[in-house]
Amino acid sequence: MSWLTPELIAVIVQVLKAIVILLVVVVAGALLSFVERRLLGLWQDRYGPNRVGPFGLFQLAADMLKMFFKEDWTPPFVDKPIFTLAPVVAMSSLLIAFAVVPVTPTWGVADLNIGLLFFFAMAGLTVYAVLFAGWSSNNKFALLGSLRASAQTVSYEVFLGLSLMGIVAQVGSFNMRDIVEYQQQHLWFIIPQFLGFATFFIAGVAVTHRHPFDQPEAEQELADGYHIEYAGMKWGMFFVGEYIGIVLVSALLTTLFFGGWHGPFLETLPWLSFFWFALKTGFFIMVFILLRASIPRPRYDQVMAFSWKFCLPLTLINLLVTGALVLAAQ
Amino acid sequence: MEFAFYFASGAAVVATLRVISASNPVHALLYLVISLLAVAMCFFSLGAPFAGALEIIVYAGAIMVLFVFVVMMLNLGPAVAQQERAWLRPGVWVGPSLLAAALLAQLLYVLFGEPSNATLAATSVGPKEVGIALFGPYLLAVELASLLLLGALVAAYHLGRHEAKE
């Protein structure tokens, strides 16, 4: 066994950890479709899916069977290569961004020193999924949906980046692990960076195209928008991609503003770090679903005006004040 | 790292060739996005991760979205692809190819005439070093660029306002 050097074992262990994280994120994303419908039912005084298995727990399996065996129909008028590529981009870009999230002190895929920028880059690329899906479908409603998506992206991406620059200025690093360690020694960023938290949360909802920023796929006026022509597994990839986006943004909110894996009793029971991380992330996923259950959908020019005229100045003021305080503290 | 650099730059060259030769404008834009991503990979492998990330965020994530947005609005059908194919006759390629080949020969002569033998990615340039350089020796260039952007912003605001009044 001379080829099994310690370095090789370390590499294999890292790869296995990365695969486990990948699987957990995808499975959590798929499970969320069931959790969301049950929670929406609870908040809207109805049952939701409760027929398949105990408490409807096997609904996910039934849905997946349905999705796999549906005919994967590609309409003859679409632009085939781009039509096939769009769902792949939708699912993979936010999944790749999960690589920079530090789950626990020892678990995490990539420890990049430009961690936050890597997330911005991947979030910037997700818009191509919607754009190309809408264009290649050759359908008016799909095109309208993707036009809305690109207008919305250009509006929110500016303050998505600016809202986190206060944190970067305070920590002095783009590295996610540095940000978590800083919060252990100081306050969690939710208190000193509350404006940053509020604006990043809004931008995060917009990244995932979730309610109330789901104008690109508004059922009422666009009949589901950009993925109107998709069926079977291709549609399923858009669907799971959306839930992966929710998991990613919730994990980022936890990491950046709520101390990541930190919590009480960590000195005596180190395995609790994953529990704290999962608990906080789960809380934000609930908030995402509660938003959908409670808020009506604004018009899309209202969304754009809100992001340019309210959120952008707010993030700039936050960055100015943070910069002044960081300078004064030196 | 050397392999990553040559792999990414090869992908960039092929993608850029397809940008020019593709007859469908949206396909050409998609190749341009891939070419920008490949250039970002080149920056990563050369030890400049900050420049690589900014390349993706600014060019692939923001500027190209506007390009794609405009081209999608034009609603170019198969007729345009046909027209483009008619324009790209083999005879059209001769002149530009000869000129580009002359430039390539010059570049190769400079590169291989005096090899510097420097190793790839000897140092890694992080965000902090870039910031210090921008606000130290290159401060004047940063200020001039921001003035230019301010001018563009005012002009864009003026154009948008005029349109809104009508």
TrEMBL record, chain A:
UniProt EC number: 7.1.1.-
Domain of life: Bacteria
The keyword rRNA-binding is annotated on this UniProt entry: no
Annotated keywords: Cell membrane, Membrane, NAD, Oxidoreductase, Quinone, Translocase, Transmembrane, Transmembrane helix, Ubiquinone
Localization per Swiss-Prot or TrEMBL: Cell membrane; Membrane
Mode of membrane association: Multi-pass membrane protein
GO MF annotation: an example: oxidoreductase activity, acting on NAD(P)H, quinone or similar compound as acceptor
Major localization listed first in the record, in broad terms: membrane
InterPro entries recorded: NADH_UbQ_OxRdtase_su1/FPO, NADH_UbQ_OxRdtase_su1_CS
Reaction equations catalysed: a quinone + NADH + 5 H(+)(in) = a quinol + NAD(+) + 4 H(+)(out)
A Gene Ontology cellular-component term: plasma membrane
Broad enzyme group: translocase
TM segment ranges: 7-32, 81-102, 114-135, 156-174, 186-207, 243-262, 274-294, 306-329
GO biological process entries: aerobic respiration
Cross-referenced PROSITE patterns: COMPLEX1_ND1_1 (PS00667), COMPLEX1_ND1_2 (PS00668)
Family: Belongs to the complex I subunit 1 family.
NCBIfam families, A to Z: PRK06076.1-1, PRK06076.1-2
Oligomer status and interactors: NDH-1 is composed of 13 different subunits. Subunits NuoA, H, J, K, L, M, N constitute the membrane sector of the complex.
Function: NDH-1 shuttles electrons from NADH, via FMN and iron-sulfur (Fe-S) centers, to quinones in the respiratory chain. The immediate electron acceptor for the enzyme in this species is believed to be ubiquinone. Couples the redox reaction to proton translocation (for every two electrons transferred, four hydrogen ions are translocated across the cytoplasmic membrane), and thus conserves the redox energy in a proton gradient. This subunit may bind ubiquinone.
UniProt name for this protein: NADH-quinone oxidoreductase subunit H
Lineage, opening ranks: Bacteria, Pseudomonadati, Pseudomonadota, Gammaproteobacteria, Pseudomonadales
Name of the gene: nuoH
